[in-house]
Amino acid sequence: xxxxxxxPEWAPQSATLLVWPRAGxxxxxxxxxxxxxxxxxxxxxxxxxxxxxxxxxxxxxxxIAARQxxxxxxxxxxxxxxxxxxxxxxxxxxxxxxVEDNRRTFVDFRFDGWGGRFDAANDDALTAALYDxxxxxxxxxxxxxxxxxxxxxxSDGRGTILTTERxxxxxxxxxxxxxxxxxxxxxxxxxxxxxxxxxxxxxIGDDTDGHIDTLARFVAPDTIIxxxxxxxxxxxxxxxxxxAGELSALRDVHGEPYTLVELPLPAxxxxxxxxxRLPAGYANFLIxxxxxxxxxxxxxxxxxxxAIIxxxxxxxxxxxxxxxxxxxxxxxxxxxxxxxPYA
Length: 343
Known about the structure:
By secondary structure, the protein is α/β, with parallel strands linked by helices. Helices cover 27% and strands 25% of the residues. Keywords: Hydrolase.
């Protein structure tokens, strides 16, 4: 009998994929700050697992090398891959790794810039290029013609996928896709036996049409942590409250209600250039071997969010990472990384 599985994020990991922010992209005068965040992530991760950093061009590779010579970026357990990339969001451009019969398959879904919002030709080719260069280690490569991003799905490790209808079947990515179409793809490619659909939940400023990794996350097969909003005057309150109601109606693989854990919402974060609200939240944390990297925004709620996440992971070190530089480009820690599990 096959043991085909999409491992949960808390399963042991062999590596983490990161992409170095490149000059000439969308970062503008925030480039150095964004690079400092990726560097901070690598510093935490390298002692725990291999870190694979993509350098999209010669300037990025030179900056990485200079930081390594200066001792600010690790060299041990760190590999640099010189591969073209458009942006840093490895969660959506890296492989989704399936484990079957103690063998890994690196599933490469199409990436179209979140429904054609941004140029994405290099990012769409990223997983294949990294695989062809041998950067993922042992395993097979599988390409899917379906457009799907890693940030749009959550796995409990037991065949259940949690996702949002607005992202997978909203019409922007796969024309004419229905729930049934999506469920068939998830079953065929990732071994999903159940799909939980959310129709509510949104963060203002989100470019992804409701990626689940900004809203609700499995932290155990029977537990979901989710972004809340306690302020009735906040524009997020109605949608996030409705989402909490949907989550309460879901059942785990044993037919029991999930244990639900609510996260606070940081005070509104605004883009300093034009003043629009940014999609800041705490659900975009990153689980790695022995630790959890938690977004921080220089906000009083940072400590509360870290404590709540720490309660869900009592055996892991909780490490806040200032994420304000990433949220300026509408992303976060989880968006910027993709784990490569062991077989």
